[in-house]
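Q: Here's a chain of 366 amino acids. Please give me its 3D structure as tokens.
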Amino acid sequence: MAADAAEEIRGTAHGTAPVPLSVLDLVTVGAGRTATDALRTSVDIVRLAEARGFRRYWVAEHHSMPGVASSSPAVILAHLAAHTDRIRLGSGGVMLPNHAPLVIAEQFGTLEAMAPGRVDLGLGRAPGTDGATAAALRRTDRLNEGADDFPQQLAELIRFLDDDFPDGHPYGRIHAVPGPVQATSPGGVQSAHRPPVWLLGSSGFSARLAGSLGLPFAFAHHFSAQNTIPALDLYRESFRPSAVLDAPYALIGVSALATDDEKEARRQVLAAALNMVRLRTGRPGLVPTPEEAEAYDFSPMEEEFVRSWNANVVHGTADEVRAGLDDLQKRTGADELMLTANAHGGDVRLRSYELIADAYGLPTPA
């Protein structure tokens, strides 16, 4: 079982890529576009990713953000599963404190039944939104309690996934279905397989926990770049071999946008940065167009934020992006790069993944 789990976690690099490449989708909605448009783009990108040999395709949970239509990762993943055959699909991540562990086990057991052997369950402990929205989701204003309880919630979720609560446990007679219990029922032929669990983080807490449990770790370099190397070092130092992995395995999320011309890349990332300015100042909205961003009067403080933010976005021509990704992988020692392309238009995002695949010589469809 350990060998099977490790095989699902680790990937194979294709072409000249230094490590496996994957996709993180925020299902961004641009000004003048609809959520339907964004979800159609997701289908186009996941099909491209599968055809070109990207390892996995994850969807991130966010709430109360008009420009991000990924509030329900499990629903979106079911949709993507219907349009793909091989690529791994997963959450990057589901925010565990927002949900009852049993609900997550049921949702991802259902996804596993839809797409056997290709579902990942990435878990985070942040709310994926502001405090008021988190309180509405969790029906409590004691938000710190949820984060502090994360290790216990994680243990409970894994028990539900494995269907192995000890005798006498209050949940011992409760089963996540679809799940392993079906294999032990009279006439049961259900596979006992379940999605591998990943821990996600932007600081040291989840890095240390993932290491101590011998789980794979995904770090959010795309919005916490200053913490990337310390967190990865902590993960590796804390790692203890488990039934899942005998050695650490860490991926990092990277903002990367390739365009046919360098000037266009700068225009697109400026629009994405303006979107972040508005989000960080309590004015979340749809992703603005490059034209709107070029006409926007940035304050000195906003200009400094944009410079800092875009310093960690790998952008430019395909060759420039490839060089930037190669350098980042060398500096961090990441075992996998998960790319997220933030731009106003779906066509720009799709083209970016195509250009990066070409730059690395990834497989082309027959």
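Q: Can you summarize the key feature?
A: The first strand starts at residue 21 and ends at 25.
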